Every structure is written in C-alpha cells, then in structure tokens.
Amino acid sequence: MRRGSRLPERLYGIAMWAVSAVLAVFLIGLGGLVIDDLPRGTPSIPLHPDYPPALELQRASLKKDRDRRVMEREAQALRLEAARKAMASAKEGFSTWIETRKATTDPTQDRDVLERTRRLEQLQGVVRVEDRRLDEIDAAIEAIARSQRAALAQRKALDDAYRPIRARLVFRAETQVFLLRLAFTLPLLFVSAFLVLRRRNSAFWPLYRGFVLAALYGFFVELVPYLPSYGGYIRYGVGVVMTVMVCIVLVRNMRAYLARRRAAESESEVLRRQRVDRDNAYARIDRKICPDCERPLRFSEGQETNFCVHCGLTLYRHCPVCQTRNLAFNRFCLSCGHEEPGRWAGEQRAEEHDVSSAATTPASPHRYGRDDEKEPVS
C-alpha cells in the first residue's frame, strides 16, 4: 500500500487483505477436512510372521507343562519343609529323652531307645526322599526351560527373517498414503506459483492471494503429521526449489527494472515527470527520494534544491504569478491557487497516449503508468 494513497484506497487495501485472510482460513479448514478423510497412518501390518503351528503347539505345551511342574515344586517344597520340621521336633524330643535315660539308668528303657532311634531314622529317610523328589522336579523344570529357549530361538530366527519383509511392507504402505496426500497438496503449490507469477496485477488478486496462503499452509503445515521417514526430504526439497525459483524471478525482475530505468532516464524530463503519480511523488519526496529514479535526493545547506542531481527531474518550481516555490507536481499554487492548464493538458495527452499503448500491448507488472488510473490492488 502506498504511503501517499488516498484514505479510501488504504481502506480498500486493508479490506482486500482481510478478504484474503478470511478466504485462506476457510480454504485451510476445507482442506483439513479433506485431508482427514484421506487414509490415515499405516495400515495394520502384523508385527510378527505366521509361526508354524507345530512350533506354537510346542510352546503352548511347554508352557503348560512348566506351569504344572512349578505348582508341583511348590507343593513338594511344602512337604519337604513339613518333613524337616517333624524330624527336627523328633530329634529334639529324642535328645531330651536320652538325657533323662542317662540320669535314671533304667535298663528297662533300652528297648525304648532302640524304638525311638528307629523312628528318628525313618523321619530322616522321609526327609531324604522328599528332598530327592524336589531335585527331580527342579531338573524337569530346567529341561522344560531349555526346550522353551530352543523354541524362542526358532521364533527369533523367524522374526529376524520377517523384519526386512515387514519394513518393505510398511514403507510401501506409508508411501501410498503420503503420495495420496501429496497428490492433493502439491498441485495447489503449482497453481499458487502460476497465480503469483501471472495474476499479481489482476483485479481478483486478493482472492488468489488467499488461495496461495492456504496452499502454502496445507503443504508446509498440514502435511507434516503424515510425513513418513523420507517425507522431510520432499518437504525441504520443495522448499529449496521454490526458494531458487523465487530468487530467479527476483533477479530477472531486477534486471528488467534496471533496463527500464536506463531506458526511462534517456527520455525527456517532461515525459518522465508526466508519468509520475502525484500521490506517489509526494510520499517519496517526504522520504527524500526522487519520484522517478528512486535515488536519494541531495540537498545543499543554504541552497534551494529544485532538481534531482541524478536524473534531472524537476522537483520544485516557482509560480509564474506570485513566484511562490511549489512542488512541481502541484496542480495549483500553494499561495495564490494559480493553475497551469497548459502543462496539465500536456500531461493529459501523455496519459491518453499511455492508455492507447496499453490497449495494444500486453500488460506487464512492471509497466510505468499513472497509479491512480489502475485499480487499487493491495
């Protein structure tokens, strides 16, 4: 938006930016709904291969047998503990009885000594039997564990062989989903590039600009959650290509601009001043910039500066009636209100010549003309 433009033109530019933003918001919402309806994520691919039925039956049987043996071992451990306690109790009672026997030295109790000794040996035999059974159960559990480790090794070998196969399946599924989403968003970028390059001076550019903003958001933001592991290369690659294209366009435009400036500066000062828009001229002179060649104006202290030292454009002139110093782009004198109809008639003829030339020449985004004759475009 030009600094020296009229208030309605400024309001129009702000309104057109609002239209672009609102259209972009609605297009982004619509695109988000379309993307949500597309296939999402990776299809269900099994994490493990189909194991042989015999291997699965063996694993189930080993697990069941091991569980049974573990329960049997717990019961056997309880029996062994009970036998040990019974033997410890009998041994303690026998030791007490022996001390009593030694104190009384009753010969009739020798038969009881033999009987108690025999019962104590029987309890010791029970403890040894229960202990041996517990060892047998532990050996059986260890054999089952070895068989389970062998079955697990077979499963691991099958998993190792299946892992690259599953990786290829996942890669293929992710690629299909990503390409489907890319087929929806990438054409929008191409259309946006065409609009930026070919339709920037269109009266409907605010609508095109909203579409461009929505397309950029859809590609660089909406597509991010669905990028596979290699998707970042595509996104950044497209960003690099777009940056290079923008750089090429800017370089070409700058070269064309410099060529036009050299051609314009070779024309007469009157024609160049007639092509400058008054509002634009006021704004640039306020910023101490030449309205035509756009170079900084040079001022000498104590001396009036009436011309641009770079291109010779007339900046200030004196009114022929009251000799008041006015901007050369003023139609009326600041002091007496005198109008120079002859000069403005010449400018009107130059404007009509520009309009007739534009009717026979394709429009160019860098054509010089009066800005107040073009439709205001933000």
From TrEMBL:
UniProt feature coiled coil, ranges: none
Chain intervals with Basic and acidic residues compositional bias: 345-355, 368-378
UniProt entry tagged with the keyword Membrane: yes
Presence of keyword Transmembrane helix: yes
Keyword field: Membrane, Transmembrane, Transmembrane helix
Transmembrane spans: 12-35, 178-197, 209-227, 233-251
Region ranges (Disordered): 345-378
Protein name: Serine endopeptidase
Source lineage: Bacteria, Pseudomonadati, Pseudomonadota, Alphaproteobacteria, Acetobacterales
